[in-house]
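Form P-L/3: holo structure prediction, ligand SUD.
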Amino acid sequence: MNTHARHDVHGDVARRHVTATAPGKVNVSLRVGPLRPDGYHDVASVYLAVSLTETVTAVARDDGRITVGPCPRHVSLVDAHDVPWDESNLAHRAAVLLRERMGLDPETHGVDLQVAKQVPVAGGMGGGSADAAAALVACSALWDTGLTRSGLAELAAELGADVPFSVVGGAAVGLGTGTDLTPVAARNPVHLVVVPADGGLSTPVVFEALDRLRAEGTLDSPGGVEVNQDVVRALALADPLALALAMDNDLQTPAVSLFPELSDVLDLGLDEGALRGMVSGSGPTLLFVARDEQEAERLATAVKERTGIEAIPVHGPVHGAGLL
Ligand SMILES: C[C@@](CO)(OP(=O)(O)O)[C@H](O)COP(=O)(O)OP(=O)(O)OC[C@H]1O[C@@H](n2ccc(N)nc2=O)[C@H](O)[C@@H]1O
Ligand SMILES: Nc1ncnc2c1ncn2[C@@H]1O[C@H](COP(=O)(O)OP(=O)(O)O)[C@@H](O)[C@H]1O
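OUTPUT (holo model):
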């Protein structure tokens, strides 16, 4: 029996359960290379894990079934209707993959996954990836696999480009499809405001739009990608102004072309004193850089007042997936 699992009483049956959390992310730099033959793009990404986290409770079942659903005990900050609560759910896929790779008996190793979401769905903040990371950590403890964090991060890469970073957390450069991670120093917290949009954007559709804009010559086509070292330095120095000036995102133009309303909110954030506004990953969530925590609170309130959108002050880096 592992040391992390707790017991709960559901009817007459005591069921072991484990809870894990994992962070959402923003990309403070996202440089995208040309389309590869496998349908992916090489990226040079600078990830920052932020204080908007997902929580997954894994409750043991001995009939081998794996289920996933919204957590009955936690209030989700996002609309659970937007999430596929079936085998396609990234948390479900994580549990299936872990069980298979660890050679566990599919007749006896089942789990009910209860997910409490805070990260906007399909928003470019890696919420589904965080659910997968938290599910990996929770199921690994529940089933006593003995896998290390780097073992979990390796499995995570099979689930999606953003999943390893949510396992690892902090701040990191991501190369390859984003899964080849190198931690970077970020001593003091960076304060941001994230502004979710009404609706989501499909990640592959945004990458396709980038390819299209490059093919027609509207955007330059790079031969390769290089890490944005100015952003890495700004994180190391904990200098919000330098970070704001250096940030970039090759998916911003395609995301805004698909979701033109984002331009107005970007302008509004700057008008309210943000140091910089940018699309988070493939969008449509926006991120604004604030000078400090107080300024982030003020900016979030101002954006909320002017747009009615629930802008959220966050900070990063925060740690990666872990047990509660
Ligand atoms: C753009 C980024 C930036 O961090 O995140 P989001 O904004 O979606 O959160 C990531 O690259 C997304 O990561 P993730 O959402 O895990 O992507 P995956 O499920 O692995 O891939 C979905 C699809 O996105 C495209 N894709 C993804 C990653 C990559 N390096 N090149 C790509 O072209 C491919 O079309 C792929 O089929
Ligand atoms: N646990 C999950 N939470 C949210 N979305 C999920 C989940 N599992 C699968 N998905 C699917 O993945 C898509 C992208 O999810 P998400 O990770 O929230 O966004 P992004 O990739 O933009 O950061 C969603 O539209 C949804 O169809």
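COMMENT: The CA atoms of residues 127 and 320 lie 13 Å apart.
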